[in-house]
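Hi L.,

You mentioned the student needs an example of a multi-chain input paired with its predicted structure. This one should do, with 706 residues in total across all chains.
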Amino acid sequence: MMIQISFYLTMALYGITTLLYLACLLRAAPCWAVAARRLLIAGFLTHCLATIHRYIAAGHLPITNMHESLSFFALSLVAAYLYFEFRFKVSTLGSFVMPVALLMIIGSSTFPQALRPLNPALESAWIYSHTILAFGAYAFFTIACGVAAMYLIQSHFLKKKQLGPLFKKLPSLDTLDEIGYRCLSFGFPLLTLAIITGAIWAAQAWGSYWSWDPKETWSLITWFVFAALLHGRLTTGWRGRRAAWLTVAGFLIMLFTFIGVNLWIPGLHSYN
Amino acid sequence: MNIIVVGLSHKTASVEIREKVAFSPNSIEQPLKALLMLEGIVEGVIVSTCNRVEIYATTRDIAGGIGRIRRFLADWHHLPFDLIEPHLYSYHGETAIRHVFRVASSLDSMVVGEPQILGQIKTSYGYAAEYGTSGVILNRFLHKAFSVAKRVRTETRIASSAVSVSFAAVELARKIFDSLSDKTVLLIGAGEMCELAARHFLTNGAKGVLVTNRTFAKAQRLAEEFAGEAIPFEELFDHLHKADIILTSTGAPHCIVAPKDLKPVIQRRRMKPMFFIDIAVPRDIDPAVNDLDAVYLYDLDDLQQVVAANLEGRRQEAEKAEAIIAEEIIQFHKWVATLEVTPTIVALRRQFDHLRHAELARTLVAWKDAPPDAEKRLEALTAALVNKILHHPTVALKKGGQGNRTDLYLDALRALFDLETPAPVDDDAADTEE
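Structure written out for the whole complex:
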């Protein structure tokens, strides 16, 4: 019961926060962004509370069904976003990231919420490292996608010389580039480690490091896309609009790896 | 007490006149002191910038005070009064308050919304405070002006847009590069506008300047002026990759930079964005370079459109600012008007009598077996007491007559005895940081 109260409270807070951030893009008053951030921190805290409650009630990290993992995804995303908001002071990023977090938590609420015992095959300390690493990577890549979208919009304005209010609100291309790069350089090592720990765990639980399970295949594809992106950046300084488009593509593939594979392709990772 | 303003500005006087009446900040002490020696002038502040010379003062004799300050401006600079007289404006009362609020809020500036004027007034006020020529009224007046300016700045977007081509260029560059501190500006060709823009980039923190010109000597001369580096025109494409911001204004009849020239440059820059500002007519840069991923090209027309849009925006914001000022004037004017000796004494007496009568009535109602002459005696006693208490302050106020100190007393009396002063002017926003 407590879990549900804090879960729905979180959802409501994320909803209001998202609306405030979107309003910030259209309206002039900068105080709205401050209000949005405060509410978001409140939402984040209730979300942590809900997650901890569920963790205690279930006796394991709550990421074993769609309800739990979508909620956990939103939690990681908000945590990562808060870091970037405080570090770079760009509240406009919230207008692009928070809708994703809100969709995730709404999506989470549509799945059955009953607590279920952990599949005995999965009982291992690896559950923590593997999944937390994976969710961290997902969160950073989501923010990278939000930043890439902002970059595309801002560079479009600059190219077409449409210098309206939205142009004035969005940060500079360099700042966006910097945040995007930082997201990739955080997210990519996390994804790499998630795949490695996953393989070790798989060897323990299923007896084989790599079994071309759909989740494994798609994570590898995601890994290759972001590897290419980072490689291009480090060798020839790949950045700008093409890199931004590729980031968006990488995010969509990642999203499919995370959600699509679970829902539509049966495999070892489908627990529902 | 009255606030008066005498001065001239870019709106009434040409630069030749303005520079003649300007005061140097290094020797502002003497004129400030001399100002206070004028008959009837109680407090004074001198504001002198390249666009305006103004004196703010307080006096009880409006016409005389204004007349003497007008003369003072001519006499101090040993100018014939007739020379500056037609350019002078003078205000008193509400219009003076409005004027100073508008100046501080940059509504009266040549470029409306430019931020320097507030700092300049703050400095001028700092001198007056240092040399003791501003008192209780001007102190509060100017702090109020600063807080009004701050309100205008935060509540309207008057200062948020660039209204000259070079400012617009800097503003755009900030949307590409964020900080300009590690950026290099390249000037191709010479031209006043180009140089002005380069200078703007430098004052806004750009790291260095490269200059090239078909005549190498010209490039060298300009490079020297900017403490930059001259590049022979033929080697332009060997150095182009070093530049983040490129300003061009050559007299070339055809484009000197085409997309194919830029491809190797972009590669060499690891695709870091480049910002081309083409001020030349006919244009120096092939418009097609704007289609390259990392290149942003603006020509003179583009920049002028930005400026026109910003100007329009400022006009709308200026209206909002005027409304804010109108609101603040009423409050402040009420406060100044209360700083008069006679009405204050009257108000003080009225306040004491009011208290006296209230207490008297209370005592008599509660006093059951009062002797018949009780009321008369108490009346006499309390009246005498009040008279005695008020005697000394009244004399001190009247004797104080003119001067700084009286205003201080008046202000204190009004506050201490809660005499119907309008809501006091708030000082909380008067902090001096930007």
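You could point out the following to them. Chain B has a mean pLDDT of 86. DSSP finds 16 helices and ten strands in chain B.

Best wishes,
N.
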